[in-house]
Amino acid sequence: MTSDELLLYLTRNGIAATTAEHPALHTVEESRRLRGDIPGLHTKNLFLRDSKKSFFLAVMDEASTVDLKALRTRIGAPGNLSFGTPEMLLELLGVTPGSVSLLGLINDRDKQVTAVIEQKLLNADVVNCHPLTNERTTSLVPADVLKFLALTGHEPLLVTVDDDRNNAVVL
Questions:
Q1: What is residue 69's DSSP assignment?
Q2: Count of the separate structural domains present in the chain
Q3: What is the CATH number of the domain that holds 140?
Q4: Which phi and psi angles does 57 have, rounded to 5°?
Q5: What distance in Å separates the CA atoms of residue 12 and residue 120, rounded to the nearest whole number?
Q6: How would residue 171 be classed by pLDDT, with cut points 50, 70 and 90?
Q7: Is the pLDDT of residue 42 over 50?
């Protein structure tokens, strides 16, 4: 699915989205410098796999830090977590590194990727993520994030991140 097709999908399903265009953003640091003044929490996304070839998309506030060992334990991953390959990212979510986003779950039709969402995002006024391209940022209210996940058949695992201890805990 293209970015434009995704945005049309959101509209057709009653999900209000505002999208801003900007230069390609590849890292959180680059995003902070180049995205402009887009209000709300901005996400960082970790495409992960474990040694049993289970896949996870961890979607966190860009300011949060995550201990992968603690996250593995808390979400019940059967093996150690590591980053998924660019090839698997493209195959499962239809995006390339730098464009990873919770909205990529639209391309996971076989439900091979488990969504792991930081609770902090769902407590925010607005959640910002890439709409399948890192040249745009789409803003959604948390209720619409959950609606999108439900429409795609992804029941998220909700986690909190304790930045002081660098630890992830499932709610």
A1: H
A2: 1
A3: 3.90.960.10
A4: -115, 105
A5: 27
A6: very low
A7: yes
